[in-house]
Amino acid sequence: MLDYFDDDLDLVFENTKNLWLDSENKTIFLTGGTGFFGIWLLMSFIFINRKLKLKAKIIVLTRDVNKFLDKNKWIKEYNEITFLEGDVLNFDFIEDDIDYIIHAATEASVKLNDEQPLVMFETVVNGTKRVLEFAELKKVKSFLLTSSGAVYGKQPSDIENISENFIGAPIPSDAASMYGEGKRMAELLCAAHYKLFDLPVKIARCYAFLGPFLELNSHFAAGNFIKNFLNENDIIIEGDGTPYRSYMYPADLAVWLWTILFKGENNSPYNVGSDRSITISDLATLISKQDSLNHIKVIVKTKPSNNPPLRYVPNIDKAVQGLNLGVYTSLETSLAKTIFFNKNILNLSNK
């Protein structure tokens, strides 16, 4: 499987190779390692670990090891990846030495947020509290929380790219704000552990991403559109198609997360994503154009209103200027790679 991603993983290596010097024989503890973020962190870690002969290892917290390995059999080849079976809310504090922690559990889920908001809040907040306590016990060199742009609440329509110093928040009277408020509380818990215990916490406020292993059956518009495309169906936009989004390729994401873990400023959040905005309608059109026969049409069900378009696009100047990061993969390339992977490669990862 890794051979297929050589170009992507080499991109991660070339942009992070100078950050791994202190990682020799070290151990990383990863929550959320079986999700979209986790797969890319695992692949890039394996690639770099072996290329630099670091003899490092990752321990992945997961509720069901067998389920994950049945779906990703290729990971069994790599003995530097081991597993701790348990829930983020109450996992056992193992005796192993832990040098770094990446807390990437609880990806955005509209379904969970809508149907079980209290479960969402408990998982985000109490899960983070549990992992922070583990990090404090282990005196880790660095702790990375994958937070979200949802912490800003609704982005004002007159701000094209929202920066880390924006003082905004989700609407507390709306239960749908539970995810964003949960991530705000998770960041606050990190700040408290930094102040009280001098824990070196790093925070990545993640936006939207597009690439191989993205779930196509979730609430992500890009994934849904690609699923329509692969099924040779017209792309249906239920809204008016005017909201703006941006998408980062996951190899770029891996570069950013590793860099923030090893080099980021303590308790100083970084936006993580692309600053190139595109409307949902234009994204659907871009995907439909991957069909050389022009069979696939884009159908917008709702007429545009006179309201300012919604936006969810980060300003990334802080990471670009402070950490020398960049957006390395174009949206067009991201789309092409995602479509090809799902059409031709995905099933091979399960063998």
Automatic annotation (TrEMBL):
Keywords: Decarboxylase, Lyase, Membrane, NAD, Transmembrane, Transmembrane helix. The keyword Isomerase does not apply. It comes from the Bacteria. Pfam families: Epimerase. Residues 28-273 form the NAD-dependent epimerase/dehydratase domain. The chain crosses the membrane at residues 28-48. The keyword Lyase applies. Its cofactor is NAD(+). InterPro entries: Epimerase_deHydtase, NAD(P)-bd_dom_sf, UXS-like. This is NAD-dependent epimerase/dehydratase domain-containing protein. It comes from Flavobacterium frigidimaris.
